[in-house]
Amino acid sequence: MQLDQLKSLVGSVNSRRILDLFGADSNRAQGFSASTGDLLFDYSKTQIDDDIRAALIRLCDKVNLSDRRAAMFAGDKINETEGRAVLHTALRNLDGGPVEVDGQDVMPDVLDTLQRMRVFAEEVRGGTITGTGGSFTDVVNIGIGGSDLGPVMATHALAPYHDGPRLHYVSNVDGAQIADTLRPLDPTRTLVIVASKTFTTIETMTNARTARAWMIDGGGDPAQQFAAVSSAVDKTQAFGIPEARVFGFADWVGGRYSVWGPVGLPVMIAVGSNAFDAFLRGGQAMDLHFQSAEWIENMPVMLALVGVWHRQVIGHTSRAVLPYDQRLVRLPAYFQQLEMESNGKSVAMDGSALTMPSGPVVWGEPGTNGQHAFYQLIHQGTDVIPCEFMVAANGHEPELVHHHHLLLANCLAQSEALMQGRSLDEARARMAEQGLTGAELERQARHRVFSGDRPSTTLIYPQLTPYVLGQIIALYEHRVFVEGVLLGINSFDQWGVELGKELATSLGPIVEGEVSAKGKDGSTAALVGYALRHRD
Ligand SMILES: O=P(O)(O)OC[C@H]1O[C@H](O)[C@H](O)[C@@H](O)[C@@H]1O
């Protein structure tokens, strides 16, 4: 990426404030936003001006973004370190054309599996498929990472549409989670979905075996009450899950991009196949926009360029994602995997060291809760944290519309406050109004200064419907892709998670007390020693 020219533009922004840009251009809000369908992405409350934007957009051509995008949608093996295509977009290509991998159209299989999911989900919802004790009251999804975060996030997000059985998610190998989840459930009326792309993930397989034993002990029947979601169909059969209850997907669906396919099965059971279709259609609409809009009007591209401006050009190390939408409570966690597992890399595609910072730390919480916790640092801390606000024009509770108005007002107030700030003179005037004078006035005023000029973007949408959720998730997926192309990295592998897994395997017998910790570093050996001495 040619960052030099952009770095030289940073100097120009030091001498002005974001607010000045609004003074100089009465149409700034319109000019520095992108819209598609019903979504509006406003990035006018950043330092990006015409020159900076033009330089950022030039980067897209420098890295041949349109060819890379075409390669992804065409099924080329752009995940080079794993030799795989990247085709989660095929999962939502509902009435699109053929998509070929190795000369083979994958769409018939995708649509066939989707249809099987619809039939199964509706049979579970309608009570045609039952447990030994009757229709399913509860569904437990066992999976971790991409086999958990997407469906958990979507289940929370689509709560107003949830009219199927209750859903529970077990991800952690900590027995506390599965114990607490299963305790109140009826083993004869619970469906367990084991979701694992590889069907080897130790946490998931351990939890799946525990759930199976619990079901058998309680009079349920795993042959009737287990389903599996995986790209390793042979392993699901070895686990004993009947073929008719296995929903497979190909290796060209990355775990963190998999909610659109069989991994989304629990969501489909919760909200029904029509609502799930609307989610897919939202994703597909964003795909079409991403493929056709000019860079300057292209929402994922502009979202990515704002990200690159803040992280790689200016150097801010993190960004906060702040949905003013309680039902997006798990969206920050979902984005953490999507963005940090995809772009947290220090090696370029060709194996050379990255010459610029990798993707940023992504974190956040729903507003307004965050306001009463960490916004202090966002407003007055020494680090600038670019904020990505999200909010709906409408809630789902018409009888509580006054709540929604307050929510919206708070969201808008935060981005306004971050940009506007409060000067020392304004703070002094306030202190004077309260009767303070002299050194005390000065001291108190200084604590009440807000530097302002802190960047934020706002994504606003009509209402959090399945269709809108699909648009938002696909928007961020493509943002990650564009940022990855600009960085020259492979956004679709995750070698950084391997070492810890290998060491956990080698530590297993040591923690069991079967093998000595000799050879481990002093700290690890001492911690094992403590655990063994204190074992009940
Ligand atoms: O779906 P699974 O194969 O069980 O994998 C679950 C998760 O585990 C891994 O460690 C990866 O880092 C994730 O990308 C993946 O989503």
From TrEMBL:
GO cellular component: cytosol
UniProt entry keywords in alphabetical sequence: Cytoplasm, Gluconeogenesis, Glycolysis, Isomerase
Compartments (UniProt record): Cytoplasm
Reactions it catalyzes: alpha-D-glucose 6-phosphate = beta-D-fructose 6-phosphate
Enzymatic class: isomerase
Pathway recorded for this protein: Carbohydrate biosynthesis; gluconeogenesis; Carbohydrate degradation; glycolysis; D-glyceraldehyde 3-phosphate and glycerone phosphate from D-glucose: step 2/4
One Pfam family matching this protein: PGI
Gene Ontology MF term list: carbohydrate derivative binding; glucose-6-phosphate isomerase activity; monosaccharide binding
InterPro entries: G6P_Isomerase, G6P_Isomerase_C, Phosphoglucose_isomerase_CS, SIS_dom_sf, SIS_PGI_1, SIS_PGI_2
Domain of life: Bacteria
Biological processes per GO annotation: gluconeogenesis; glucose 6-phosphate metabolic process; glycolytic process
Coiled coil: none
Active site: residue positions: E341, H372, K501
Keyword Isomerase: yes
PROSITE patterns: P_GLUCOSE_ISOMERASE_1 (PS00765), P_GLUCOSE_ISOMERASE_2 (PS00174), P_GLUCOSE_ISOMERASE_3 (PS51463)
SUPFAM superfamilies associated with the record: SIS domain
EC number(s) recorded for this UniProt protein: 5.3.1.9
Known function: Catalyzes the reversible isomerization of glucose-6-phosphate to fructose-6-phosphate.
Family that this chain belongs to: Belongs to the GPI family.
Record-given protein name: Glucose-6-phosphate isomerase
Organism the protein comes from: Ruegeria halocynthiae
